């Protein structure tokens, strides 16, 4: 799902301005190297990352996830 939030986001891979997409918890968790349940708990209970209530689930703006990743060190396990 994509949505224009009225402000652009810098795409780190391409180095250009793109629209700020809305992404699901699994996609955001993959970007951070976390399990989706961990990210859900951080967002809902610790209020550590901005999120959007989306029915019975939550969504994230991609730029917020990128900014959160910049501010915190995440080592993705393979």
Written account of the structure:
The protein has 78 residues and is α+β, with helices and mostly antiparallel strands. The protein has one domain (8-71): Multidrug-efflux Transporter Regulator, Chain: A, Domain 2 (Orthogonal Bundle). It is built from three helices and five strands; from the N terminus they run βββααββα. The strands form two sheets. The protein has a three-stranded antiparallel sheet. A hairpin with a 4-residue loop joins β1 (8-11) and β2. The longest helix is centred in the middle third of the chain and has 11 residues, at 36-46. It is globular, with a radius of gyration of 12 Å. The model is unreliable at 1-6 (pLDDT under 50).
Enumerate the spans where pLDDT stays under 50 for 5 or more consecutive residues.
1-6
Shape from CA axes? Answer: globular
Distance, first to last CA:
27 Å
Q: Approximately how much beta-strand content do the residues carry?
A: 15-25%
Q: So what's the oligomer here? A: single chain
Helical segment count: 3
Structural domain count: 1
CATH fold name: Multidrug-efflux Transporter Regulator, Chain: A, Domain 2
Radius of gyration: 12 Å
Mean pLDDT across residues: 80
């Amino acid at each position: 799902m994509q949505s224009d939030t009225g402000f652009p986001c810098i795409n780190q891979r391409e180095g250009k301005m793109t629209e700020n997409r809305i992404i699901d918890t699994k996609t955001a968790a993959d970007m951070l190297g976390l399990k989706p349940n961990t990210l859900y708990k951080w967002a809902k209970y610790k209020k550590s990352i901005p999120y959007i209530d989306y029915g019975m689930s939550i969504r994230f703006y991609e730029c917020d996830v990128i900014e959160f990743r910049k501010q915190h060190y995440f080592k993705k396990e393979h």
